[in-house]
Amino acid sequence: MGEKELDLLSSISSGPRLEILQMLRPAELKSSQIAKNMQTSIQAITRHLDRLSESKLIEKTVTGTYRLTPIADVLMLQIPLFEFLENNKEFFSTHDFSGIPPHLVSRLGDLTNCEYEGDVMKSMQRARDVCANAKKSLVGATFTVPLELYDVVLENLKQGGYSKLVYGKNTIVSKGFSEYGPRKEYLKYAESGQVEEKIVENIPISVAVSENECHMLFANKGLRIPDCKGVFFGKDPRAIAWCSDLVDYYWRMPAIEGYALKEQ
After folding, report:
1. How do residues 74-103 score in pLDDT, each as one tens digit?
2. 261: Cβ–Cβ under 8 A, 6 or more apart, which residues?
């Protein structure tokens, strides 16, 4: 990173300048309006406006208002990414982004409005609720599969719903998985196209998405697999889209043919 890039970051590292940029996102404003909104003097605001103008982040119109430049528009779209990382610094001291492709790492800001649940028992119940509340579809890519998942998803399938699940060769399933009644009944819906399954090489995360909510488990840095010590739940359309794209990423991977999940 060169001096020009560092100068650009420096321009938005100031609290007042960032506030001005956020203020200009929805509407063009004159310096007097900006000063009034920030409860400060025009003289103080002018210094920040000049710096932002020099950095090509804002421009003055012929009517005397200020507006964001295209560069600033793009930069402001990245602010949620920094907010997500800042808000979850402690969590990511023990977890990482293993299994998340670069194009989705750059969109982590889409998870900013997700709710973090650190209680293991509450996390497990809420994850079950996400599956139970699905009315139209439930898709996922997962490192572990509790047998009760099939009990829950069956109710959705009986009402005409759809399920798509991606497993990894490393996916953990309970003993009795292959002979579990609801699991067998679940597979019958593959004939109608309501159920699709696939096994890929490795899945170090767990993600599930319905038409109206989602949950995401990141990999533990030490274990290299997900744990239930922190789960992100979301109903924000951006979070749902992000999780759906992650499922699709794993679904597009080459299938491991003729492999049976190992029961433990």
Report:
1. 988 888 998 999 999 999 999 999 999 999
2. 145, 167, 171, 173, 177, 199
